[in-house]
Amino acid sequence: MAPRFGTDGIRGVANTELTAALALDLGRAAVSVLGTDTLVIGRDTRRSGPMLEAAMAAGAASAGARVELLGVLPTPAIAAVAAARGVAGAMISASHNPFADNGIKVFAPGGRKLTDDQQAAIEAMLVAESSGVPPSGADLGEIIVASDPGAWLEVLRSAAEPDALRGLSVVLDAAHGAGSGLSGEVLRGYGAEVHVIGAAPDGVNINDGYGSTHPERLQATVVERGADLGIALDGDADRLIAVDAEGNLVDGDRVIALLALDRRARGRLAHDTVVVTVMTNLGFHRAMAVAGVDVVTTAVGDRAVLEAMERGGYELGGEQSGHVISGDLAPTGDGLLTAIQLMDVVNRSGEPLGSLAGAVMTRVPQILKNVRISPDAVDPVARLGPDIAAAEAELGDDGRVLVRPSGTEPLLRIMVEAVGDGIAESICDRLVQRAVELFT
User: Fold this and answer.
1) Domain 10-150 classification at class level
2) Of 87, 194, 195, 200, which residue is the least packed, with the fewest Cβ within 10 Å?
């Protein structure tokens, strides 16, 4: 099967599905399709990262590009460098996936997400026979080490006023990932008291019991230390999950709601509109309607959110998972950038995060479960269609059902929202059982 881009680049088990040979071909194809003479590459802390970095760099250099290896940095840092310099970029990371996986995200010149046409052209080139004469001599590309996150740090420094976080104490969980090196110092630079956990990467411990998908240790640490709040990044630090002083989770829906209402109150919410995905809780939509904020809804994935933001001239959008895009500040989601803005809202309000998050919206019960399916399953959503229709008829106007295949793993994601205790879980369990019968 030809390699394909999912919702967040190309991913797979490193060295079996995502091989050095594929990374080499992807480097060559990206340079050729994007017409770039420079490619900046970053990576997270996985053991397979240097291998894939070297292979992709070789492919890009063989196509005539100058390749700059930026080392271990968050995805938004790579996007920021590419945007500041008008060059292409690549990030080697599987985000929140287990360490054995890896992935490659490619940014078009200027740090922009690839278009569908660009993705299709790169995919086609990955399986095409090579043609033409490769560059040689002075036309051959070069590979250099050039770790310089300055453009990203400038973005972070633009998120709030100096000393905006003074007086706040925060526990920061870096997931043993790409945010391990600089994130704590950035928050301290704003005046916050910072205790960092999950910042000792060893090549295999990324996301292992730490980070946004494993927040239990962060929750406990916030309570133990009496901190004002906690922030958990994911493996490549492009998203976050927050924790209030009582150890309660504050997901992306509540974070986006808080930022949207704060921006609107200060006259800084472009077109009084925020962009979210179909996964966003019904309670968010109700809260925004009451506040007079328009909501644009897209398919799942930060690329879909960003495209809608660019089309409409909107400056705030994101996902329930904690990807938040501040389009006026950065070209992609950034967990640390979002953390700074969220903490700034908390400090200016004088209210605890828990009080703010509880008041901003009332969450409608929502259950999301994953079913591992055969990678060869054909049209799983369509085959589950009669069961979905029956569930939707039962819910009527008091809920909704969303079933979609994962863009990164062989999973079917089943989400049910319903007003009333236990209803969403009951219907979700029924759909999960039917999916297991059909696809496993």
Assistant:
1) alpha beta
2) 200
Query: Would you give the distance in Å from CA 242 to the centre of its chain?
Result: 15
Q: Which residues pair with 249 in a beta bridge?
A: 243
Are 115 and 121 a contacting pair, CB within 8 Å?
Answer: no
Residues 6+ apart with CB under 8 A from 267: none
What predicted TM-score, i.e. pTM, was given to this entire model? 0.90
Locate 120 and state its tokens. 């299709």
Active site residues per annotation? 95
Query: Cα-flanking dihedrals φ and ψ of residue 87, to 5°?
Result: -120, 170
Helix (H, G, I), strand (E, B), or coil: what is residue 319?
Answer: coil
Q: State the Cα–Cα distance between residues 395 and 403, nearest whole angstrom.
A: 15
CATH fold for domain 366-439: TATA-Binding Protein (3.30.310)
- 113-172 tens-digit pLDDT: 999 899 999 999 998 877 678 888 998 999 999 978 999 999 999 999 999 999 999 999
**CB-based burial label for 224 (10 Å; 0-12, 13-18, 19+):** exposed
Q: Cα–Cα distance between 354 and 357 in angstroms, integer? A: 5
262-292 pLDDT, tens per residue? 999 999 999 999 999 999 998 999 999 999 9
Calculate the CA dihedral of residues 244, 249, 253, 258 and round it to 10 degrees: 0
Indicate the Cα dihedral angle 49, 333, 171, 71, nearest 10°: 30
Contacts of 218 (CB under 8 A, 6+ apart): 171, 173, 197, 210, 230, 231, 232, 243
Ordered by start, the domain boundaries in the chain are 10-150, 159-360, 366-439
| Model confidence pLDDT, tens digit, residues 192-204 | 999 999 999 999 9
